[in-house]
Design goal:
Blueprint lengths: L1 H11 L30 H12 L3 H17 L13 H124 L7 E3 L13 E3 L1 H17 L19 E6 L5 E6 L3 E6 L4 E7 L5 E6 L5 E6 L3 E6 L4 E7 L5 E6 L5 E6 L3 E6 L4 E7 L5 E6 L5 E6 L3 E6 L4 E6 L5 E6 L6 E5 L4 E4 L1
Antiparallel strand pairs: 1-2, 3-4, 4-5, 5-6, 7-8, 8-9, 9-10, 11-12, 12-13, 13-14, 15-16, 16-17, 17-18, 19-20, 20-21
Length: about 475
């Protein structure tokens, strides 16, 4: 601090005089006068003086100044010799600071190296763990591949047996279906033969009775009344009809007491809901009915009791029909579906979905392979019974179709419509022909046995026969 203060005092002075002595012969003429030197013009001198003042070297400073200016005056100092004198203490301080900074950096680098080493060791352990896990997974994978190969070979060894069993199953199912068809056909033939036998017996009885018929004579016939719903109907019969009635009654009473007499009328007590349709079984012993109570029922005509109740529809059942020579029933409902039922078990075998409006009627064709259904918007659908899907849709609306009927050749479908007409659809080309003549809604239609005539009934109180 004393050196710096001295420097500042010297800088405040503008000029100062330095004595200089030139060696020689000691004459006074050789003495050198003092020279005015500007401090700012000699930076090198100021650096040396600052160094000496800092170290409080006053006598050395005086001697240095005498020699410095003497050599400079004589020209013995070149510009290269008057370079800047480094400040050793400042340099040392800077070096100490730099050394300290470097040591701090070294410590940080050591810490970073230590952390990196720890991370390296940790990663190496994880690598070893994952490598071991990978090896175990590879071993398990190879084991699974071997097991799959063995299972595939084992399965391949069973494949011929499975194919053989599949073929046997298909053959058995085919034989089962054929046997079922044969059984139904045999039952139908038996029923037909029984009906033919009864018809022959009836004709013989009729002929014998006609020979003994008396003309004139009247008799009042009484109905066989059900205890639940008694009825009384009086009818007047001629003599011939009386003999026919007595002979038929005696024959039926002796042959089968439970068989219904065609001359009798019997009431079957049904629920309080309206009944929309009925259908006879081919044996003549059962009749099916459809009702507003969402059910269809199968009735035994011998005991006048309900044998089965078909439940499954969620709305009014509008139609019911037995498949000819079969125990299969077809029903249509206001819940927009058509269903097939087994009348023996009262179970629903199939349900056909596709209509978007109430289905008014559904009928089989004579082969039993196709069902025709019509709804309240005049949409007619033809269903394949085997695939349970519609293969044809025909629009004859917008008026509702009330009844459908196939001709015996299954080539024409007739529909009774609410617009007062009868729609005839040629199923080969889907052409629609309208038969007009009724003045009100046509409620029903049916073909004759030979298919030559069509019988229709309407709300205009008329029945028409079309040819």
């Amino acid at each position: 601090m004393s050196g710096e203060a001295a420097m500042m005092e010297r800088e405040d002075e503008a000029y100062y005089l330095e004595p200089a002595t030139i060696p020689g012969d000691g004459d006074s003429d050789n003495e050198i006068n003092y020279e005015e030197v500007h401090i700012d013009d000699d930076e090198a001198l100021m650096q040396y003086e600052g160094l000496l003042v800092k170290n409080n070297m006053v006598r050395t400073l005086d001697c240095f100044q005498h020699e410095w200016y003497e050599l400079k005056y004589k020209g013995k100092l070149s510009s290269s010799d008057m370079g800047t004198v480094p400040d050793v203490y400042t340099k040392n301080s800077q070096l100490d600071n730099e050394n300290k900074y470097l040591r701090e950096e070294l410590e940080r680098f050591k810490e970073a190296a230590s952390r990196a080493k720890d991370n390296f060791i940790k990663m190496r352990k994880e690598r070893d763990f994952h490598r071991m896990h990978h090896r175990r997974v590879v071993q398990e994978k190879n084991t699974l591949i071997d097991n799959l190969t063995k299972l595939r070979k084992h399965y391949d060894s069973y494949e011929p047996a499975l194919q053989h069993l599949k073929k046997k199953y298909e053959v058995a199912m085919r034989e089962k279906m054929l046997s079922k068809l044969e059984r139904d056909r045999a039952l139908g033939q038996v029923s037909g033969l029984q009906a033919t036998l009864k018809s022959v017996n009836y004709i013989r009885s009729d002929s014998a009775t006609n020979l003994e018929a008396l003309e004139g004579g009247k008799i009042t016939g009484k109905l066989i009344k059900s205890p639940d719903a008694p009825m009384r109907v009086d009818s007047t019969l001629g003599g011939t009809q009386l003999r026919l009635y007595e002979a038929r009654k005696a024959e039926l009473a002796s042959a089968k007491p439970n068989t219904l007499d065609p001359m009798d009328v019997t009431n079957i007590r049904l629920p309080v809901f309206a009944v929309w349709a009925v259908s006879y079984h081919h044996s003549g012993q059962f009749v099916a009915s459809s009702s507003v109570d969402n059910t269809a029922k199968v009735w035994d005509l011998g005991s006048l009791r309900c044998r089965q109740t078909l439940r499954g529809h969620t709305d009014s059942v509008n139609s019911v029909q037995f498949l000819r020579y079969s125990n299969t029933l077809c029903t249509s409902s206001a819940d927009k579906t058509v269903s097939l039922w087994d009348a023996r078990t009262a179970l629903c075998a199939q349900t056909f979905y596709g209509h978007v409006h109430s289905v008014n009627d559904a009928v089989f064709n004579i082969r039993g392979e196709t069902i025709a259904s019509c709804d309240s918007y005049g949409i007619v659908k033809l269903w394949d019974v085997r695939t349970v899907s519609p293969f044809k849709t025909i629009d004859v609306g917008p008026y509702p179709c009330n009844k459908a009927s196939f001709d015996p050749g299954c080539s024409v479908l007739s529909l009774s419509s609410s617009d007062g007409s009868v729609k005839m659809i040629d199923l080969s080309n889907d052409k629609v022909l309208s038969l007009t003549g009724h003045e009100d809604t046509v409620q029903t239609c049916v073909f004759s046995r030979e298919g030559d005539y069509l019988l229709t009934g309407s709300s205009d109180c008329t029945v028409r026969i079309w040819s």
